[in-house]
Amino acid sequence: MSNQPHQDTPKTNELLPPHDLSAEEALLGAIILDDRGMDEISLKDSDFYHEPHMFIFRAFTNLSQSLTHIDQITVAEELNRMGKLEEAGGVAYLFHLITVCPSPMDAMVYADIIKRMSISRQLIQVGKEIQDVGYSNPVDVSKALRQCDEKLVTVRKNGLTSPIISPKDRAESLYQRYGELYRKEMSMAISTGITKLDGKLGGGFYDGDMIVFAGRTGMGKTTMLSFITKEIATCRNVLFCSAEMNMDSLSDREVAQSAGIPTTSIRLGKYTDEIYDKILDAIGEISERKVYLYDEIPMTTDKILQAALTMKLRHGLGAVVIDYMGILGDDYGRNSYERVSYISRKIKEMARTLNVPVIVAVQLSREIEKREDKRPELVDLRDSGNIEQDADVVLFLYREGYYNRQKENDGITDILIAKHRQGQANRCIEVYYDKNTQSYSNEKIGQQEPMI
Fold first, then answer.
1. CB–CB of 407/400 below 8 Å?
2. N or C: which end of the chain has fewer CB within 10 A?
3. Are 17 and 120 in contact (CB under 8 A)?
4. What is the pTM of this model?
5. Comparing C-alpha atoms, which of 338, 325, 418 is closest to residue 378?
6. Is it true that domain 14-184 has CATH number 1.10.860.10?
7. Known catalytic membership, residue 244
8. Are 281 and 258 within 8 A, CB to CB?
9. Domain 195-441 is in which class?
């Protein structure tokens, strides 16, 4: 009988996190045999489970960055320079990796396995860290939840695919995209709810685009954003971010829109039974609408992106609406121009990162008031950072009735398409505003009143 103490066989999921040593060996061997695939592999040395493999892949990365060919000789020299040759198994192990590689052509398959295992291990680690946060019994629960969300978002970012798109991958993506367009009866764009505007924009707003609604104070930018948000929310989840109005103020306006009751009456109170029933019906509609409010002060682009990523993970995300750019709390640069340029660039990056339309309101300066023709132009944005450069679509709102009292009751609002990266600009669309329902339409509805 053996004198060795008896050891129970450990359960794999208790001691060994998910990993696949064969896939790691196969990938390393494939790269040594053919280093052309190194540029297409989106891995870090920390994605490898076996420590010697971490050292070897780090050597690969160093050689690739210095434009040095990768083979067993150059890798051995780099590992020796790093002081990790023996820890990585020596020269003999490098030759072993070549012999166990089934096929250098399947390097991406091996890399996908390694990445999947790495993400699983990261999720296990984050789960432990979140558990520790819970056991700490935090006083500030909101801060604790935000910390937990950030940990999950970090794992999600690590799981994103390589930013390098090969010709083959691009072609496969295009086959899928145009195949869907061929089979679909409707455009892949998101409708704005304004038929004439959709027609000029190729169907509406597109994923990854930054759309700017700009105008002077009182032109109805917030109302337009609310109207479009309501339309998008019929088919997609929308994150509505208002740096200007709190949840109660936004809700008062939304209830008024749904109930067909003036906002002042909603805020006054002392309702009749009929009005109160309409308010309850409006609340029911709001509860079913796919509009999520982000309400935090100060509101910055980084916080909005964090909230949007969290929402995308938890609920799915179809669009982000920001009201409005100038009031965001980002602190950057030496002056207003640099600050707004920074915010504009961050919003454009946000649209691409989230791959949804990001619609943002911009308030134009009083300089317009000094000239005879007060219709806004792109030049009016040039003192407002790089908004004109970053935006994919720039739409100006203009009401003649704002300046001409004789026309204040006609309800006509002009939407001026000042920039359209994928189509024609310098187009004007007339829409009508109905004060009773606080909504826009393509046709005149009833008696129009001045916009508030």
1. yes
2. N
3. yes
4. 0.64
5. 418
6. yes
7. yes
8. yes
9. alpha beta
